[in-house]
Amino acid sequence: MTTKTNTTTAEQHDSMFDAVLARLDVAAKIYGLSDDVANILRNPQKQVKVSIPVMMDNGKIEVFEGFRTIHSTVLGPSKGGIRYAMDVNDDEVKALSAWMTFKCAVANLPYGGAKGGIKCDPRKMSVGELERLTKAYTTAMADVFGPSTDIPAPDMGTSGREMAWLVDAYNKVHRGNFPGVATGKPVGMGGSLGRDAATGRGVMVSTLAALKKMNLDPKKVTCAVQGFGNVGSHAARLLNEQGIMICAIGDHTATIWNEKGIDIKAALEYAKGNTGVLKGFTGGVEIKPSELLTANVDVLVPAALQNVITEEIAHSIKAKLIVEGANGPTTPEADSILQEKGVTVVPDILANGGGVTVSYFEWVQNNYGYYWSEDEVNSKHDACMSNAFEHVWNNGQQYKTTLRIAAYITALKKVEFGIKAKGIY
Ligand code: GLU
Fold it and tell me: Which residue in 79, 94, 103, 115 is the catalytic one?
């Protein structure tokens, strides 16, 4: 095998993509993946970077950087969100694209993995500026995106609104009607019922599945949820509906603790009338964001940012179970500490796969032109997530490893099969 990998350069250390490779290496070794297949997966298939001039409201032109990385199309068209944030860069998008390949494979979807992003601060832009930015980015990526090639979705800083704009721009370039070019669209514009809550719902299903394996009664456990956006707010609500007491919630504006349990319905109502944020919510006492992670609870759901569970935080974590609603919330160094401490971690590529699973259902409905009820979507989602959990759990037992490495092994088996079945020329 003579293929060169891109993993030995010094600048890759401490990168997010390094964190992916660190886990890939461990899983590849335990599973016995061939170097040939590992080398293919260590290198994203395609990386596109565009510059996007946008006319701002003040009449000045600002030029934004836009990214799309297609990590793999081995198992089907590449799938993955688009994030708008100031820290978007090549490395982050590359890492997130690889996670999408593994996430889709773990969820058993006929998709590869991709991720995109624009370096911008959406909170500081007007709706008009965001619309022009989204449509200019889509036009620049019009040959990359496609309903049977590469299918975007929302991620941090984007939502159904951006997907509607994206579809509109794509339709105009390609002169047709292609609802399946993106998922996470608004309902009534080709979106699926149940898609908004899907990632949080998947977190709930995997939390219940893990608690069952650990012989813990959901009605007797306490939980802290970091993040109160699209993932965290639905996860907190749905976990609470299952009888789990939510003692801490937090977003970028406030972190709240209540040992008697937070009234999640009240928190949701409050945030709704407060531009979506928790600042000023009085259903508990305010604590520091890091105190949420190390709070005295049974279950911790990091559902906001990456790299929040560091080595230092991991030493102080009291939860027995961590369910990763965010992508990449735990560093590889923290992983080893949590393993030594006996903390069960349901990894991101399993726990937050509910979103892309319902994205797949949305795409299927778009292709059919026939739409399902919310109950139908939810029951198909729950079955899919439970199967994925069981599959990963069994691999964990078989290979005597953590759920994270077991999830990678689950994905590697499927992608390896695809690579071998298709052949290399
Ligand atoms: N951005 C979400 C994720 O990271 C959803 C991706 C999708 O639905 O394609 O899983």
Answer: 115
- Burial class of residue 287 (count of CB atoms within 10 Å of its CB; 0-12, 13-18, 19+): middle
Tell how far CA 179 is from the center of its chain: 22
Residue 61 DSSP SS3: strand
Q: Which residue, among 27, 54, 205, has the nearest Cα to 122 in the 3D structure? A: 54
pLDDT of residue 172: 98
Q: Is the CB of 306 under 6 A from ligand 1?
A: no
Q: Is any ligand 1 atom within 6 A of the Cβ of residue 229?
A: no
Q: What is the CATH number of domain 198-351?
A: 3.40.50.720
> How far is it, in rounded angstroms, from Cα 217 to Cα 203?
17
Superfamily of domain 44-181: Leucine Dehydrogenase, chain A, domain 1 (3.40.50.10860)
Distance CA(105)–CA(41), nearest Å, equals 13
For residue 153, the CA-to-ligand 1 centroid distance in Å is 6
User: Which ligand 1 atom sits nearest the alpha carbon of residue 360?
Assistant: 8
pLDDT in tens, 5-24: 333 333 334 789 998 999 99
Sign of CA dihedral 192, 271, 327, 67: positive
Distance from residue 77's CA to the centre of ligand 1 (Å): 14
Cβ(164)–Cβ(158) below 8 Å: no
359 lines ligand 1 (CB under 6 A): yes
The string of pLDDT tens digits covering residues 300-323 is 999 999 999 999 999 999 999 999
Phi and psi of 56, rounded to 5°? -85, 165
Pocket-testing residue among 359, 377, 384, ligand 1, by greatest number of atoms within 8 A of Cβ? 359
Which residue spans of the chain are classified as CATH 3.40.50.720?
Answer: 198-351
**Ligand 1 close to Cβ of residue 343 (< 6 A):** no
> Which ligand 1 atom is nearest residue 327's CA?
4
The question of whether 185 is a catalytic residue gets the answer no
* Nearest-CA residue for atom 9 of ligand 1: 80
Percentage with pLDDT > 90 across the chain: 96
How far apart, in whole angstroms, are the C-alpha atoms of residue 152 and residue 26?
30
Between the CA of residue 82 and those of 153, 172, 176, 230, 279, what are the distances in Å? 6, 20, 23, 14, 27
* Intervals of CATH 3.40.50.10860 along the chain: 44-181
